[in-house]
User: Which sequence fits this backbone?
């Protein structure tokens, strides 16, 4: 399913990493959660070196300004949306595994996970 997304300004924590470094990703989530930020949380993947096997920037944040934290813009555009089974503790991992094994024509520009306050989780993919 495709949907239009308006530009979003996200404030939070950022690292440069890859999918072979799950420890760094977990530590970033822990650091962000210590901020006790309220609202919809975004996990934004951008500045890809290549595809899902290479390095990328991961930015975790919210749309509210967090003083002293980094800022990122999610560009407006049309994104492919994947619904995540939020009842499954490994739902996000399973959704990404399905995406990596799919024939979705990804653009590897800006992708993001959206963690709604109601518990829903959706992954938005930039596509060609």
Assistant:
């Amino acid at each position: 399913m495709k949907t239009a997304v308006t530009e979003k300004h996200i404030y939070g924590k950022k690292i440069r990493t890859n999918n072979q470094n799950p420890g760094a990703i977990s530590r970033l989530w822990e650091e962000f959660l210590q901020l006790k930020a309220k609202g919809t949380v975004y996990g934004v993947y951008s500045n890809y070196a290549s595809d899902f096997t290479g390095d990328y920037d991961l930015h975790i944040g919210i749309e509210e300004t967090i003083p002293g934290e980094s800022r990122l813009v999610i560009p407006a555009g049309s994104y492919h949306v994947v619904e995540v089974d939020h009842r499954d503790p490994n739902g996000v991992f399973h959704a990404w595994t399905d995406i990596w094994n799919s024939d979705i024509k990804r653009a590897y520009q800006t992708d993001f996970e959206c963690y709604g306050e109601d518990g829903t989780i959706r992954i938005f993919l930039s596509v060609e």
Remarks:
- The chain has one domain: 2-126.
- The helical segments are 22-33, 91-100.
